[in-house]
Design a protein that fits this description.
625 residues, alpha+beta, Heat Shock Protein 90, Ribosomal Protein S5, domain 2, Rossmann fold, 4 domains, 8-stranded mixed sheet, 5-stranded mixed sheet, 37% helix, elongated, binds adenosine-5'-diphosphate, binds magnesium ion
């Protein structure tokens, strides 16, 4: 038996490894299975090029727990290692890698995200082990098998082994602190997390089933092993789009998120090999109201090994609401997240994904507009979020972003402008886009606008006020106004003024009559000469003020402080009720009419509550008695 010293200058490297990596101990299994997979794939390659002639067969990787002896075995049928290779790869190279790691991350090892992505490799086995053994036999003919073992000091021993079959067996003598890794449920959980889509079959969870064979007293017990392959070796994203059907994408979605019972709306297959390598499938899920409740996330893989489900920085923020997988060997994982954002390769990846998503949306829209319109409600939040946050996406979105009307017609921006330009353009040449945020609550305003021949959009997603702001600043000569933000005649001002039935003097008198009853601190009275069949009293909240408020509520800056609830009360001086009020000589009766009209206006804005509502009901009964 040979003894030797592992080539390392840091004497106490093992305690360091254990300490630094404690929180991410579990990655040892991922690393060892990655090595076993690499070794098997190497053999496959050698077989393909004719250097290995015995036939590749159907090699598997086996994970076994030996609870009694506190051991975990990881066995592969890959290339194996000769004695020289063990010395070279295990004793020299890996350690210098580990040393470098410790040196580099002395201070920052605690930063989440770094550890585990680094790929400490083989030596991560020591995080959970008192000692580690390698029993290996190279695929090279007549090379003897080797038994390497190391107890966590820089000393290793190397001896002959009687292993007859090709491949490598790693044996972990699990330490007391890490006993939980001897539980079947722990290991199967880890295999499912990290190795579910790896390319070589992984066998684990051998169950012993006792069968009674034969009859009578002489029943014989036969133990039968049930093989449990835990992984899907050819996940959908590794295949070509042309080889996949709609159903394949859906069933892969179910493999990815077994707890999710809703089908995705559609998918985007990513596939690029220049200037970087990336494959993957992204899914548009049905977004529920609470965006924050999103549990299923995009998973990041490197060569089918799960790395993380934190794709921040790699995928543009608005697309983190999507689901699916991204697999790329080109994403640097051994660097901090803040660095990722400035890394130009990562920036390219992020741009590529954005472009692919925009292209897909565009083609879906072109291919089947009806279907796209039906899905619009479920995808609009992501699209609007993207329009707001990514300029490139904003530019592209013009061709598929939709603006639905309250009558359920869907327009692209261009179509919308074409349709409304003539009617909606005011005397200053500006095209006013009318919108509602709630059909039920704003019904009377919508009806009134429709009656005048105007089109009203329904824009009801939570970030729409931000989007409107963005559209106003990037499109020419338009502005948005919510239907209830003023009298329609004021929102779209035309030249042809309706003449007021009341003279200026009379108007002044009317105003003071109204002010005797209507609280000044709440309502700004605004007399307008509108059509006689327009409503007498209309409560509005100025567009600008309301929008700023909305934006504050959905995460804008707080530059307006806490604005008080102020409303405009638009009074139509041409409506008969208003002239009646003006002509009512009895003070009490006039007061009552004003109060009743105000309350009705409040009612239509959903503002009549509490004491005012009680009083209103009482007054209404009195009026019809
Ligand atoms: P990496 O996998 O990044 O090369 P590791 O520390 O995980 O680093 O492994 C070091 C080297 O040890 C590998 O490159 C490989 O040559 C060898 N090795 C590790 N595990 C196996 C295995 N199961 N079969 C064959 N060779 C292995
Ligand atoms: Mg490795």
């Amino acid at each position: 038996m040979a003894k030797g010293k592992i080539n390392v200058s840091v004497e106490n490297i093992f305690p360091l490894i254990k300490k630094f990596l404690y929180s991410d101990q579990e990655i040892f299994l991922r690393e060892l299975i990655s090595n076993a997979t690499d070794a098997t794939l190497k053999l496959k390659h050698l077989s393909n090029i004719g250097e290995f002639k015995e036939g590749f067969g159907n090699p598997i990787i086996e994970v076994k727990i030996d609870k009694k002896n506190s051991k975990i075995h990881i066995i592969d049928q890959g290339v194996g290692m000769t004695e020289t290779e063990v010395k070279k790869y295990i004793n020299e190279v890996a350690f210098s890698g580990a040393e470098e790691f410790i040196e580099k991350y002395k201070d920052t090892a605690k930063d989440s995200g770094i550890i585990g992505h680094f790929g400490l490799g083989f030596y991560s086995a020591f995080m959970v082990s008192d000692s580690v053994e390698i029993i290996t036999k190279s695929y090279k003919k007549s090379s003897p098998s080797v038994h390497w073992s190391c107890d966590g000091s820089p000393e290793f021993s190397l001896s002959k082994s009687d292993k007859k079959t090709r491949g490598t067996e790693i044996i972990l003598n699990v330490s007391k602190d890490s006993k939980s890794f001897l539980e079947e449920s722990t290991i199967s959980g880890l295999l499912k997390k990290y190795n579910r889509f790896m390319p070589i079959p992984i066998k684990f969870g051998t169950k012993e089933i006792t069968n009674n064979v034969g009859e009578g007293d002489k029943a014989k017990e036969v133990k039968e092993e049930i093989d449990n392959i835990i992984n899907i070796t050819e996940p959908a994203w590794t295949k070509k789009p042309k080889d996949l059907k709609e159903g394949d994408y859906k069933s892969f979605y179910k493999d990815l998120y077994p707890m999710n019972f809703e089908d995705p709306l559609f998918n985007i297959h990513l596939n690029v090999d220049y200037p970087f390598n990336l494959t993957g499938i992204l899914y548009f899920p049905k977004i529920t109201n609470d965006i924050n409740l999103q549990k299923d996330k995009i998973q990041l893989y490197q060569n089918q090994v799960f790395v993380t489900d934190n794709v921040e920085g790699i995928v543009p923020e608005f697309l983190t609401l999507l689901r699916g997988v991204i697999d790329s060997p080109d994403i640097p994982l051994n660097v901090s997240r803040s660095y990722l954002q400035v890394d130009s390769a990562v920036k390219k990846i992020s741009n590529y994904i954005t472009r692919k998503v925009a292209d897909k949306l565009n083609s879906l829209f072109k291919k089947d507009r009806k279907k796209f319109e039906e899905k619009w409600n479920d995808i609009k939040v992501i699209i609007e979020y993207g329009m707001l946050s990514e300029d490139k996406f904003f530019e592209k979105s013009d061709s598929f972003s939709l603006y639905p009307s309250t009558e359920n017609n869907y327009y692209t921006y261009e179509e919308l402008i074409k349709k409304i330009k003539k009617d909606h353009t005011d005397k200053d040449g500006k095209t006013i886009i009318l919108y509602a945020s709630n059909i039920e609550e704003q019904d009377s305003y919508i009806k009134h606008a429709n009656k005048k021949g105007y089109t009203v959009l329904l824009l009801d997603s939570p970030i729409v006020s931000h989007l409107i702001q963005k559209l106003e600043s990037s499109k020419e000569n338009i502005s948005f106004a919510r239907v209830d933000s003023d009298a329609i005649e004021q929102l779209i001002k035309k030249d042809d003024k309706t003449i007021s039935k009341l003279s200026d003097k009379e108007q002044e008198k009317l105003k003071s009559q109204l002010e005797e009853v209507i609280p000044k601190e709440k309502y700004t009275i605004q007399l307008e000469s509108m059509d006689s069949d327009s409503l007498p009293f209309i409560i509005t909240q100025p567009e600008f003020m309301r929008r700023m408020k909305d934006m504050q509520n959905t995460g804008g800056n707080n530059m307006f402080g806490n604005m008080p609830e102020m409303y405009n009360l638009v009074v139509n001086t041409n409506n008969k009720l208003v002239t009646d009020i003006f002509n009512t000589k009895t003070k009490n009766k006039r007061y009552r009419l004003i109060k009743q009209s105000l309350d009705l206006a409040k009612l239509s804005q959903n503002l009549l509550k509490g004491e005012d509502l009680t009083e209103f009901i009482k007054r209404s009964y009195d009026l019809i008695k």
